[in-house]
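note to self: dont lose this again. the chain is below, predicted strucutre after it. 219 aa total, dont forget to put it in the shared folder this time
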Amino acid sequence: MLRRFLFVLFIFFLSTLPALPQPETAMIDYSLEVSFDIKASKITGVATIPVKKGWEISLDTGRLNIIDVSVGQRKLGISRHRETLRILSSQDGTVEIRYEGTFSGVDHPGGTSSVIGSQGIFLTGTWYPKPDRMCIYHLKARLPDGYEAISEAETIEKSKKDGHTDIAFDFHHPLDAINFIASDRYQIVKDHFNGIEIFAYLFPEDVDLTRTCIDPRNH
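---
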């Protein structure tokens, strides 16, 4: 059964990054677009990563099925060892990784219990090809109408069309990884504190807990 989660956004104070990072540790600007077949517990995604010539990136792919990897119109040879995908770029460009995965809620080695199902979506760990370094993440998720979703974000934009909802999450600070949770039962409660917007995503039976959970005076 999908667990209940409450998310509160925090302000992070980050130190200045080195001006000229080496290729091995360069920050990645990572864009990810995903869609779901909820009945089949399936995710389909496209990850795009701008790269410089000579960059080598390792990505943890877990049990994901990597469909193809390309730069522009050119398919790249894939070097994959167990659950790791290695990409060595021979030119400047944008790497595109197409993948799919199934998450039925069965525990995986390491304790990961991501799930896509009728009770909701809970994705953590390796639900997308995860780079071996910190990234600036841009996530866009397509969901059936009626679903609300949450991920790490400073800004969230939502649009509806043709029976589905697109939700875009942007967080302009480096992160090790991102997570994603969605449900067609969430109610969103919004509050303010010192000019900061605070959002809580709650099931209807938990709405009475709103003030206890998000009122800063209670902490």
